């Protein structure tokens, strides 16, 4: 039998070297971005309309057409960010920002120049938001395992390359923004006003 008066010493505390803390913070930020992105996807999946077979069946004596109409009013009819409003837009923009900041810019950002302007406040440029969101939606679809092995290549060829040409063009949405990393600048260019329907007085 062992002597109860002797105890084992407490284990040494676990210490992380200072150099590894940056890696840990980066990994944590990426994980948090993925969790947010998964939350957005789950929200989107939860708001998708019911399959067509159930939409055609009358519910509680309500004709199928009226039931389908009420289902459309409940959820968004499009996942594209420009079709969203209010809180749904804000949630989608936050998820898009994570993707842009933690994946898109670190990998595809390239140097800022007069021929390739960029704006750190890209989210204030409607065209940039629309193009980046479309790019992100395509990325989600084409980097999924179900897209097959050529999915990422297709995304680069058909989506990324075209989006970068327009986003970073000297006359693109960032034309009045930063063209030199040493001189940050931001200005949203004016867009043509919609034609007013004149009422004869």
TrEMBL record:
Family annotation (InterPro entries): DUF4913
Pfam family of the protein (one): DUF4913
Ranges for region Disordered: 1-21, 43-75
Listed name of the protein: DUF4913 domain-containing protein
Organism of this sequence: Streptomyces atratus
């Amino acid at each position: 039998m062992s002597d109860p008066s002797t105890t084992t010493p407490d284990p040494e505390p676990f210490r992380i070297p200072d150099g590894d803390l940056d890696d840990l913070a980066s990994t944590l930020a990426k994980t948090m971005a993925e969790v947010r992105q998964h939350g957005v996807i789950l929200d989107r999946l939860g708001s998708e309309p019911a399959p067509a077979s159930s939409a055609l069946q009358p519910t509680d004596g309500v004709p199928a057409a009226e039931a389908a109409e009420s289902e459309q009013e409940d959820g968004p009819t499009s996942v594209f960010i420009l079709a969203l409003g209010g809180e749904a837009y804000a949630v989608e923009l936050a998820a898009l920002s994570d993707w842009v900041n933690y994946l898109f810019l670190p990998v595809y950002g390239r140097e800022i120049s007069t021929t390739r302007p960029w704006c750190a406040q890209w989210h204030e440029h409607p065209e940039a938001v629309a193009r980046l969101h479309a790019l992100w939606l395509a990325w989600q679809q084409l980097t999924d395992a179900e897209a097959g092995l050529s999915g990422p290549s297709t995304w680069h060829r058909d989506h990324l390359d075209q989006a970068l040409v327009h986003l970073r063009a000297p006359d693109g949405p960032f034309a009045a923004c930063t063209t030199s990393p040493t001189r940050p600048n931001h200005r949203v260019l004016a867009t043509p006003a919609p034609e007013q329907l004149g009422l004869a007085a």
